[in-house]
TrEMBL record:
Keywords: Golgi apparatus, Hydrolase, Membrane, Signal-anchor, Transmembrane, Transmembrane helix
Catalytic activity: N-{alpha-Glc-(1->3)-alpha-Man-(1->2)-alpha-Man-(1->2)-alpha-Man-(1->3)-[alpha-Man-(1->2)-alpha-Man-(1->3)-[alpha-Man-(1->2)-alpha-Man-(1->6)]-alpha-Man-(1->6)]-beta-Man-(1->4)-beta-GlcNAc-(1->4)-beta-GlcNAc}-L-asparaginyl-[protein] + H2O = alpha-D-glucosyl-(1->3)-D-mannopyranose + N(4)-{alpha-D-Man-(1->2)-alpha-D-Man-(1->3)-[alpha-D-Man-(1->2)-alpha-D-Man-(1->3)-[alpha-D-Man-(1->2)-alpha-D-Man-(1->6)]-alpha-D-Man-(1->6)]-beta-D-Man-(1->4)-beta-D-GlaNAc-(1->4)-beta-D-GlcNAc}-L-asparaginyl-[protein] (N-glucan mannose isomer 8A1,2,3B1,2)
Primary localization: Golgi
GO molecular function terms attached to this record: glycoprotein endo-alpha-1,2-mannosidase activity
Species, as recorded: Ceuthmochares aereus
EC number: 3.2.1.130
Name under which the protein is recorded: Glycoprotein endo-alpha-1,2-mannosidase
Gene Ontology terms: cellular component: Golgi membrane
Superkingdom assignment: Eukaryota
Acyltransferase in keyword set: no
UniProt record similarity statement: Belongs to the glycosyl hydrolase 99 family.
Length: 463
């Protein structure tokens, strides 16, 4: 009887241990699925149908905001009043490089980070801008009717699933600009890809912001950061308007010490321009601007530069090559949303670029969630998994040994891709996501960690 009792207890204990082991394995599998949702999003109405080129496939999209998968180009408010009053004071009072320079991580000029200066508040702008983002309706009226309408009501209700440590700030607040530069420098990034519209132009929810560029350049220089331009798909963007706008940027800002120039394999130092939604324009138009024989060519002129196209679908790589672009980037922080943003495709894209003398710049991000402005788009959410999603993306990028890595993003709060400091916040209507159990700066620290890792690995690649 005693032996029987012992055996029975042993069997029960074994069953319990086996059950716990099975649960553990299931948890691991679920976590891995969250980290690598490579196949998600294809062919369904919440996926690529949101991109401009595919508007014809979805009956809708008179409103460009619905046609973009990203809240496009929402740059900040007009700053002429601020500049006329304060810019000279800011310049006069700004020390060259502050004493904390030595305490900050050295900038990595091969880490580029997308930055948005489109936010406004009553103190600096007379009203809220972008924090009060509207809820975007789904293009299918039957689906749209199942979701709320209206717009957000700051400061407690903002168009984001997270809440910034700086609150509902204005992008032209000098203290905010400086805080942002310090955060990006602490993350060991080196180049800020600034969202840009031509003077007098803006996205549907913002106001013109070109006047803010000199202030951003000044503060970037203070922290030894560089500025490149992320050119948004403004109205009537074509070869002629791009030529004039590139000329404008280089003439006006090219002499600033914070203006970024990239050293090419031939030893030239050229400006760089990321071109969002480049595929909306046909290759023949781009070739007029970007090939030596083009009718509007910018090549071998004082305004020659490196132009980096957005790759979404696999076939875009051939269009990018024919167009005369110098490279491609993937932008989206949603692994599996598009061919370009799917980590498992990066090796073949890098190989294509290597064989065609193009730069491949993968874009990594900490996660994705935009249900605060697209409440019907939960399907494309990518959980941060306490930083593991971000590290998985960096790991995938390093595997292909890119010359540059881009980060989506520093502060695209609408789409939850930000690495800017966020804090817990709860109101009667909203419970915001946060970075717990980590501190508000966890994604800055992770970026700095991978910047150092990239630097060390790059030294090995070059040996």
């Amino acid at each position: 009887t005693l032996n029987y009792d012992i055996m029975a207890r042993f069997r029960r204990r074994t069953c319990i241990i086996l059950l716990l082991f099975i649960l553990f394995i299931c948890s691991i599998m679920m976590a891995l699925k969250t980290l690598r949702p490579d196949r998600a999003g294809f062919g369904d109405p919440f996926g690529l149908g949101l991109l401009p080129e595919l508007q014809q496939r979805a009956v809708l999209l008179d409103n460009k905001q619905n046609s973009l998968y990203r809240v496009q180009g929402d740059t900040v408010t007009h700053v002429s009043n601020l500049r006329s009053i304060t810019v000279n004071t800011i310049k006069a009072s700004m020390p060259p490089v502050n004493q904390m320079e030595e305490e900050l991580s050295s900038p990595n000029y091969n880490f580029h980070i997308f930055y948005y200066s489109w936010f406004g508040n009553p103190q600096f702008d007379g009203k809220y801008i972008h924090w009060n983002h509207p809820l975007l309706p789904h293009w299918d009226p039957k689906i749209a009717n199942n979701y709320p309408k209206g717009r957000h009501n700051p400061p407690d209700d903002i168009g984001s699933n997270f809440y910034p440590e700086l609150g509902s700030y204005s992008s032209k607040d000098p203290s905010v600009i400086e805080a942002h530069m310090k955060q990006m420098r602490s993350a060991s990034t080196g180049v800020i890809a600034l969202s840009w519209y031509p003077p007098g132009m803006a996205d549907e929810n913002g106001e013109p912001t070109d006047d803010l560029v000199p202030v951003i350049l000044d503060y970037a220089h203070k922290y030894n950061l560089k500025i490149t331009f992320h050119i948004e798909p403004y109205k009537d963007r074509d070869d002629r308007s791009m030529y004039h706008n590139v000329k404008y940027i280089i003439d006006k800002y090219g002499g600033h010490p914070a203006f970024y120039r990239h050293k090419t394999s031939t030893g030239r130092f050229l400006p760089m321009f990321y071109v969002y939604d480049s595929y909306v324009t046909i290759p023949e138009i781009w070739a007029n601007l970007l090939t030596v024989s083009g009718s509007q060519t910018i090549r071998n002129t004082p305004y020659d530069a490196l132009f980096i196209a957005l790759l979404v679908e696999e076939r875009h790589k051939h269009d990018i090559h024919r167009s005369g672009f110098d490279g491609m980037y993937t932008y989206f922080a949603t692994n599996g949303f598009s061919y370009g943003s799917s980590h498992h495709n990066w090796a073949s894209l890098k190989a294509f670029c290597d064989s065609n003398n193009l730069m491949f710049i993968p874009s990594v991000g900490p996660g994705y969630i935009d249900t605060s402005i697209r409440p019907w788009n939960n399907h494309n959410t990518r959980n941060r998994v306490n930083g593991k999603y971000y590290e998985t993306a960096f790991s995938a990028a390093l595997l292909v040994r890119p010359e540059i890595i881009s980060i989506t993003s520093f502060n695209e709060w609408h789409e939850g891709t930000q690495i800017e400091k966020a804090v817990p916040k709860r109101t009667e209507q909203v419970v915001y996501l946060d970075y717990k159990p980590h501190k508000p700066n966890v994604y800055l620290e992770l970026t700095q960690k991978w910047s150092e890792k990239y630097r060390k690995e790059q030294e090995q690649w070059l040996m």
